[in-house]
TrEMBL record:
Coiled coil: none
Similarity annotation: Belongs to the small GTPase superfamily. Rab family.
CDD domains, per the entry: DnaJ
Residue ranges occupied by any J domain in the UniProt entry: 153-209
Keywords linked to the UniProt accession: GTP-binding, Nucleotide-binding
Any Pfam family matching the protein: DnaJ
Any one GO CC term of the record: lysosome
Species whose genome carries this gene: Scopus umbretta (Hammerkop)
Protein name: DJC27 protein
Matching SUPFAM superfamilies: Chaperone J-domain, P-loop containing nucleoside triphosphate hydrolases
GO biological process terms on file: phagosome-lysosome fusion
Entry keyword annotation includes GTP-binding: yes
GO molecular function per UniProt: GTP binding; GTPase activity
């Protein structure tokens, strides 16, 4: 078993030391602190570094990834909610767990699922079984949820320019409503995104004659 743990919330090791861990990796645990948004944002850099170190012949599709949203015991200081973390992980086909190293919550379940996935990987000739990589939502849905979450106002949320007509607002709303309706979209955060879109449309139409 070759395992790499990337703790985005800890003091980083030097690149020369980290690079030794990547070769022949079968499983990766990505850990971030739910109270430190910068540690969550750093996950993309960890993935990019790993991809670079594996080189052109490395296949990250055949590595089991687990994302641990850690320190959930510190809920008062949480800055990355579950739906945001889960969306990041599941849109990439990664396993996701809410954990607390302090209380032990979620730790046993995470390791049991993680090691079972690696056993399945080994039993399948070093390749992740198809069932373990399936995502129940599209990249378009995931991207829309992220964009809505980061929107600065109602215009931005509906992706229309300020001063758009009622027809343009309604057209943009209908497109997003079909894409994100909770009855048809299982992506984490879709329900909140759908409600935000409804509220944005209502707010804009009130000010358009």
């Amino acid at each position: 078993l070759s395992l790499t743990v990337a703790d985005a919330s800890a003091l980083p090791l030097s690149p020369q030391v980290r690079n030794e861990f990547y070769k022949d990796t079968q499983g990766v645990i990505l850990v971030y602190d739910v109270g430190q948004k910068e540690s969550f944002d750093a996950l993309d850099a960890w993935l990019a570094e790993m991809k670079q170190e594996l080189g052109p012949h490395g296949n990250m599709e055949n590595v089991v990834f687990v994302v641990c949203a850690n320190k959930i015991d510190c809920s008062k200081h949480r800055s990355v909610d579950e739906s945001e973390g889960r969306l990041w992980a599941e849109s990439r086909g990664f396993l996701y767990f809410e954990t607390s190293a302090q209380t032990g919550e979620g730790i046993n379940e995470m390791f049991q699922t993680f090691y079972s996935a690696i056993v399945d990987l080994c039993d399948n000739g070093g390749k992740r079984p198809p069932s373990s990589t399936g995502v129940g939502f599209t990249k378009e849905q995931a991207d829309a949820i992220r964009r809505i979450r980061n929107s600065k106002d109602s215009w931005d949320m509906l992706a229309v320019k300020p001063g758009a007509t009622r027809d343009e607002v309604n057209k943009a709303y209908r497109k997003l409503a079909v894409l994100l309706h909770p009855d048809k979209c299982v992506a984490p955060g879709s329900e909140d995104a759908f409600k935000a879109v409804v509220n944005a449309r209502t707010a804009l139409l009130k000010n358009i004659k």
